[in-house]
Amino acid sequence: MNFYSSLMLLATVQLLCYVSVLEAYSNGSLLEACATMTPVHEAFEPSTDPCLYETRPSELMVVQGGSISIDLRNISSNSFKGYMTMAFDASKPDDAGPIGTFSMPTDGQLLSCPGGVNNTITHKDNNSIKRNVTAIWTAPADFVGSVIFKTTFVRGLSEYWVKVPSAGGNITVFSESTTSSSTTQPTTTTTSTPPCGAASSISRNWIWGVILLIPVMFQHA
Ligand SMILES: *[C@@H]1O[C@H](CO)[C@@H](O)[C@H](O)[C@H]1NC(C)=O
Ligand SMILES: *[C@@H]1O[C@H](CO)[C@@H](O)[C@H](O)[C@H]1NC(C)=O
Ligand SMILES: *[C@@H]1O[C@H](CO)[C@@H](O)[C@H](O)[C@H]1NC(C)=O
Ligand SMILES: *[C@@H]1O[C@H](CO)[C@@H](O)[C@H](O)[C@H]1NC(C)=O
Ligand SMILES: CC(=O)N[C@H]1CO[C@H](CO)[C@@H](O)[C@@H]1O
Ligand SMILES: CC(=O)N[C@H]1CO[C@H](CO)[C@@H](O)[C@@H]1O
Question: 20 to 30 A Cα–Cα from 72, which one of 7, 150, 162, 214?
């Protein structure tokens, strides 16, 4: 192979890389992470260390169709670069899909994963440091029961936690008709920190891997 054909090959490979990078940023590709909430970096497994971040709901009870805010925040001073949060019906497997709707997060974007609209929040840019992301979650109007928020936090290429349950336990969505009879306020002082990496099956999704590799690719370019 002569010099010029090598050069052409290199240029083609780079072009293909560039195209797949662009595709990785399209909303359609991010949607592929909906099923597993799992970023994949070839060489790295999800961390089993205690999670450095938490999902903190403002309330542990909400009336059907009502709203609460959630904070994704650092526990130490460490900051994260990527995240994905969904709310699940605690009585069903996660395969049933996320429920409720989110408002636009303070740092990130809305996704509509299969089965709903605006039912997922995730990061928008690949490289900024995030310490405290806030979003409003609205419970479905036709649902009563226990809800659990789960967040995948990405600190960097080699360190991420998948589907970390929210701090303080599950959220109870109660019926409008029981509002008048329930006069006791739920305690919101629980401070237990759930373990990370609670996902039962970690299936691989290369899309997030591509997304998260981009800063590295840029640095080495
Ligand atoms: C990050 O965590 C540290 C320690 O808990 C805290 O002092 C700091 O305010 C947090 N920063 C933000 C932006 O939440
Ligand atoms: C909280 O949700 C989990 C499902 O993620 C479930 O296993 C657990 O039983 C729920 N706890 C309560 C008290 O409903
Ligand atoms: C979904 O979010 C978009 C962007 O904020 C908003 O315009 C739209 O009304 C939302 N749809 C629903 C059903 O919440
Ligand atoms: C996170 O941001 C929200 C809204 O900006 C604020 O109310 C809350 O106090 C912040 N939490 C931390 C721990 O910084
Ligand atoms: C509907 C939706 O999620 N649109 C987003 C697609 O991606 C761009 C760029 O990341 C966002 O600005 C849109 O809001
Ligand atoms: C879409 C986007 O935010 N791309 C950025 C990813 O990170 C590199 C390196 O910091 C930036 O140059 C891109 O603009």
Answer: 214
Q: Percentages helix, strand, coil for the chain, rounded to the nearest 5?
A: 25, 30, 45
Ligand 6 pocket member 127 (CB < 6 A): yes
Q: Which domains does the chain have, with CATH numbers?
A: 43-202 (2.60.40.4060)
pLDDT-based confidence at 192, cuts 50/70/90? very low
Phi first, then psi: what are they for 94, rounded to 5°? -60, -25
Q: For residue 31, what is the enclosing H or E element?
A: helix 27-31
pLDDT digits (tens, 9 = 90+) for 18-65: 333 333 334 555 777 898 898 766 578 899 999 999 999 999 999 999
Cβ–ligand 4 contact at 71 (below 6 Å): yes
- Ligand 5, atom 12: closest residue by C-alpha: 109
Reported as half-sphere exposure (CB side, CA atoms, 13 A), residue 78 has a value of 16
Tell me, using a 6 A CB cutoff, whether residue 106 lines ligand 1: no
Secondary structure element (H or E) that encloses residue 151, with its range: strand 145-156
